Amino acid sequence: MSAGAITTLIIAAIILILLIIIVRYWITIYNKFQYWINRAERKFADIDVVLQERLDKIQALSQIVKKYDIHEWKALKETIEARSRWTKDTPLNEKVNLASDIENSYFKIQAVFEKYPELKADRLHLRLMESDSRIEKRLRITRLEYNRVAQQYNERVMKFPRNMVARIHHFTKLDYLTFVTQEPDEPQMAYNPKEIFKDN
User: Fold this and answer.
1) Rounded to an integer, what distance in angstroms lies between the CA atom of residue 30 and that of residue 22?
2) Which terminal Cβ of the chain has fewer Cβ within 10 Å, N or C?
């Protein structure tokens, strides 16, 4: 075998080894992305459980508003139906945005009770409010856990060379779950009931 043929074989062997290393590295990065996406989905599933409690509460609150024949109860319908708009196959970012809408709408509903003292004094409303702090605490914990995982995943999506794998396999950044009122030290968004609840 000539020296040229041996050199060609050596170069081919080096290229083959490099390709194997690159492919293995690529597969490892891809599997890591899948791992973090699955973790984010599991964390969001915990949020979903708490949100169902919130939706049950919203449903009960809307029935109180309806009982008093106050027209704003119609404005709650979309909020109550928001949870039904996602399925198992709904993209995670869409679920996150809907979850934010549900929780933010809860505070809008509270604005109705502030507007009508007779609603605020209703016995069912008072009983429902007793569970409020428990739901708030669980939502705060699960939201923070989800956002931590989303942050770790997003950092991997943006960093080179992982971002090349992410771009080719359509791993995109995850949205963070935010609510209008969160931690005590965060600014609270003020709601004006007259601006929020309008007849359509």
Assistant:
1) 12
2) C
CB 139 within 8 Å of CB 179: yes
Coil, helix or strand for 28?
A: helix
Q: Which residue has the tokens 């989800």?
A: 146
Query: 149 CB contacts (<8 Å, ≥6 apart)?
Result: 36, 39, 40, 43
pLDDT at 29: 95
**Residue 24 maps to which CATH number?**
1.20.1440.20
| Nearest CA-CA partner of 41 in 112, 110, 77, 91 | 91
Q: What is the DSSP letter of 181?
A: S
- Compute CA distances 14 → 1, 28, 174, whole Å: 19, 21, 39
Burial class (CB in 10 A: 0-12, 13-18, 19+), 51: buried
Q: Which residue is it, tokens 């919130």?
A: 54
CA–CA separation, 107 and 61 (whole Å): 12
Q: For residues 84 and 91, give the distance between their C-alpha atoms in angstroms, rounded to a whole number.
A: 14
Q: Which domain holds residue 59?
A: 3-196
Q: Give me the residue label for tokens 């971002």.
A: 163
Q: How many domains does the chain have?
A: 1
pLDDT digits (tens, 9 = 90+) for 122-180: 888 888 888 788 888 898 899 999 999 999 999 999 998 899 999 999 999 999 988 76
